[in-house]
């Protein structure tokens, strides 16, 4: 998916992988979802002073809205004065994400915003919406905002802080009574459903998990097949040069055994930092403040989180330096068994096969151009992922202007503008 701040992101409903007629246009009566007095009085029932003038909308669509509330006095004794509210018309998704965020908070109480409330309410125009309320991280900015302005040494320090957080998340025992209690409503993690999360679903084994990834990625006709063999399963691309990978029954058991709690979207836009005392040379310094956006979280083999990084480089992450440091500093967390490398290969096969057959997909073309201009290529060592081409220099910062220009270039090539 393109980076959420890009020009292309705004055109996603019409340009990304489908014609502009593939999505039903909203009726003229539909409006972007926004907070109203009825919503606020329901969420903060009995709390004085919570009005629309306290709300600051960050983003909204027909179906979602994220806004902050800043008050002089906390609305309830257990609440802070600064709050973040999310509204969705999706049903029960926010409750699922809140359960995962609460698991993260249990492991990282200093880094994961506390979820204070989840529920449903009705807008003034009669739409039923789900809401979540969490603590707002005051005095912070995204790591993305400052990443290219800090020294390589400071970059490494911040990456290591994130890596330490990942270590603590992986210590969570998915079979513990506490975890199962926290996950019991609304996304029950049954004894037989030990892999997955709300994004893809929950599965009893890696075979079904891979099948769901394939289903989510495959066009029609399919460009990959997953079949059972006497030894286990075999994933085969329709493009011979992309290849195949097989898993034995022992491989599948090993991957299932090594499922850990993963965030799955640890990119600079989802990491908040706070400025601290400057260095001796007066350059600013930052510390890790929060990890946000838990929509992709769940229990997976770490090879999945590690391998997904390869598929989103150049789309939802535009910083090669962040990518390479994260991969380098977390590589020791990957179990050494070959099956974990095979899972990374399977993700690559599915990703490359999908992109090969979508020749007019705007997002895929933008990603390919980004890869070319950043002078990176796939390493023959699967665990390394993307590496600099031999004899080339480390790419400089890829700015938002660079991103916008690249997207316009692709749109012109395809005749959209």
Automatic annotation (TrEMBL):
Pfam families, A to Z: APH (PF01636)
Annotated keywords: Signal
Domain Aminoglycoside phosphotransferase as annotated: residue spans: 96-307
UniProt signal peptide: 1-22
Source organism superkingdom: Eukaryota
PANTHER family, A to Z: AMINOGLYCOSIDE PHOSPHOTRANSFERASE DOMAIN-CONTAINING PROTEIN (PTHR21310:SF15), AMINOGLYCOSIDE PHOSPHOTRANSFERASE-RELATED-RELATED (PTHR21310)
Listed name of the protein: Aminoglycoside phosphotransferase domain-containing protein
């Amino acid at each position: 998916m393109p980076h959420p701040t890009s020009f292309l992101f705004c055109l996603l409903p019409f340009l990304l992988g489908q014609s502009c007629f593939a999505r039903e246009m909203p009726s003229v009566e539909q409006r972007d979802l926004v907070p109203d007095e009825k919503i606020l009085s329901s969420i903060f029932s009995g709390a004085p002073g919570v009005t629309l003038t306290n709300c600051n909308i960050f983003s909204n669509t027909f179906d979602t809205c994220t806004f902050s509330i800043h008050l002089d006095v906390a609305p309830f004794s257990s609440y802070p004065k600064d709050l973040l509210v999310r509204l969705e018309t999706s049903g029960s998704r926010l409750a699922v994400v809140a359960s995962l965020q609460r698991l993260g908070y249990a492991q990282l109480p200093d880094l994961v915003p506390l979820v204070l409330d989840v529920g449903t309410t009705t807008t003034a125009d009669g739409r039923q919406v789900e809401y979540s309320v969490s603590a707002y991280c005051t005095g912070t900015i995204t790591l993305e905002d400052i990443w290219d302005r800090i020294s390589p040494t400071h970059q490494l320090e911040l990456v290591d802080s994130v890596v330490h957080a990942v270590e603590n998340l992986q210590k969570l025992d998915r079979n513990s009574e506490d975890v199962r209690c926290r996950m019991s409503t609304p996304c029950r993690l049954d004894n037989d459903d030990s892999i997955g999360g709300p994004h893809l679903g929950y599965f009893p084994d890696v075979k079904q998990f891979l099948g769901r990834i394939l289903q989510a990625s495959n066009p029609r006709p399919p460009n990959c097949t997953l079949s059972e063999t006497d030894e286990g399963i075999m994933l085969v691309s329709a493009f011979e040069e992309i290849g195949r990978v097989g898993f034995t029954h022992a491989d599948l058991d090993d991957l299932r055994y090594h499922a850990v709690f993963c965030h799955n979207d640890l990119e600079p836009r989802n990491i908040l930092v706070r400025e601290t005392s400057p260095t001796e040379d007066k350059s600013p310094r930052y510390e890790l403040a929060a990890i946000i956006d838990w929509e992709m979280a769940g229990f997976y083999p770490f090879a999945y989180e590690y391998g997904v990084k390869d598929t989103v480089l150049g789309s939802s992450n535009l910083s090669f330096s962040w990518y390479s440091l994260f991969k380098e500093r977390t590589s020791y967390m990957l179990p050494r068994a070959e099956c974990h490398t095979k899972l990374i290969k399977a993700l690559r096969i599915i990703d490359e096969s999908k992109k090969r057959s979508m020749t007019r997909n705007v997002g895929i073309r933008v990603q390919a151009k980004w890869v070319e201009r950043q002078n990176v290529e796939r390493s023959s060592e699967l665990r390394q992922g993307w590496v600099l081409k031999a004899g080339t220099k480390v790419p400089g910062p890829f700015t938002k202007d660079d991103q916008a220009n690249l997207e316009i270039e692709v749109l012109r090539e395809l005749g959209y503008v």
